Amino acid sequence: MSANNPLPSGFVLAGLILLGLSASHAQNNQIDQRIAERFRSYDQNNDQAISPAEFEKGLTARNTRLSVGQTFREIDRDRDGELSLKEYAAAKEDRDEDRMRKGKRPPGPVPLPEPKPDPKPPVGHAPELVTRKNADGTESGSWTSELLGKEIACKVRYPEDQGASYPVVVYLKGLATPRLGKLDDKTLIRGFLEEGMVVIEADYEKNARAQGARLLPEIDDWYGFLAETQNYPVDTNWIYILPAGHTIDRKVRIIDLPEVTVDMDVFYPSGDAAPVPLMLQITSIKDQGFWINQRAYYIYGLLTNGYAGAVMEHNGGMMFSPKGDLFPERQAARLLRARADGWNLSGTLGVTGHSKGSSRAAKAAFLGDGEREGDRGPNAEQSGRFQAALLSAGQHATEFLIEDGYLDEVGQEKREAAEKQFAEMSLAEMLEISTTTYVTPDDPPAFLCVGELDKQFRVRQMMRLARKCREVGVDHRFVIQPDMPHQYIDDPAVIGRIFSFLAQHLK
């Protein structure tokens, strides 16, 4: 199943030398007037420095909202809390040169960015849940929906057991998509409450906008609000956004060993529903015990489009394949197929991951069933293969990480740890943990994506994976999303392409 591609001789040394020579030319040469003009457009108080507020306001793309602070800090090289013209120019020229090397834009005048029109009607203020207490202990109120451009009716229900914080389910009613689950709302909501969860019912009134790719930014608004609110007793490790009719099996045990446990949540159509495909997400939260469904963005969107979903803990370290012989993602696939009838699953499975989870999801997709795996687990007779993969912003070619700029784009602690690790690793050890090592023609189709404003080593790593898929003939799509940092894609047009790709291979 695997094919190794040896590196050129002297790779690691050459990579270090290249990094040493890559100091920004903008610090030493005259600054391009186009860049100076763009800098002045950000510098609203004309003090020749850009504050975080000015920087944020200057970014016109809505999908930068989650990582503006991170991007600002990366450019702010002297850590003085503001951007000088030289700092801004260095980052801008480095990015433009890299784009030109990749053939994305020829040299020439670069116009200032035009504001991008927002197709949604304005709502006047940020998404917010406002409620008032009722005599029965529930709360009624409204949610400011950016999707619909108005406030929609909501009700908040609390479990009987008192606590400082609770898991929360946002239960989306009145969507413009078919309801898959067969149990009624009252029964499902009672079940959530009995499990100690807060339930927020939100009624989208069958509005035609409340469907498909356009729902995902709204789902992320719900998640972002609940993750940050101080007005509701939310346990931020456990936030679920489900379409009406779906339910949850929480903390399903995949691996149960004295030295390690691995769990997942499963979201599926309730009752005697028709079987549907399932998408499994590998979390990017690496520390065991911190929960796993943080911004399971694509999963919750897919639930509204004819799927079941599951989210499982991230599995890194020496015990797990390909370093060790435990392969939890494979065992999860076998468990999902073994219990397909109880969860109304068709047995067709996809796998996805973002950031750290991208590498695990890729290995689950590209390693053969049983390859580099010891015990197949209690459902050994089932297949552990996936039929499609959605891989976002990960590291997939360890042997090229230095060449791709990793040491230049991480903090001092990570850089020092990486330098020590790379000095101790052989080429064979690097290849063993690289996704690209395992890509072969019989692997499932993959949709690959990364933000243009993500760290450039991630962009280059995703390019290497796309190149390997092309070389061996794996059906794939590759998107470098313009103006987007390290996050999920929230452009409905691209989300629609992702959904169409998955539907082609999973439905």
Defining key terms:
507 residues; 15 helices; globular; six-stranded mixed sheet; alpha/beta; 21% strand; eight-stranded mixed sheet
What this model shows, in words?
- This protein has 507 residues and is α/β, with parallel strands linked by helices.
- Helix content is 32%, strand content 21%.
- The protein contains 15 helices and 14 strands.
- The strands form 2 sheets. It has an 8-stranded mixed β-sheet, sandwiched between helices.
- Strand 2 and strand 3 (150-157) form a beta hairpin.
- The longest helix is centred in the first third of the chain and has 17 residues, at 85-101.
Strand content: 15-25%
Number of helices: 15
Rg (CA only): 24 Å
String of helices and strands: HHHHHEEEEHEHEEEEHEHEHEHHHEHEH
Please specify the SSE layout and strand pairing.
Blueprint: H1 11-20, H2 33-42, H3 52-58, H4 68-75, H5 85-101, E1 129-133, E2 139-145, E3 150-157, E4 166-173, H6 185-194, E5 198-203, H7 215-228, E6 234-243, E7 246-257, E8 260-269, E9 276-282, H8 297-303, E10 308-312, H9 328-338, E11 345-354, H10 356-366, E12 388-392, H11 406-409, H12 412-424, H13 427-432, E13 446-451, H14 456-472, E14 476-481, H15 492-506
Helix pairs in contact: 7-8
How would you summarize this macromolecular structure in one to three sentences?
This protein is of the alpha/beta class and 507 residues long.
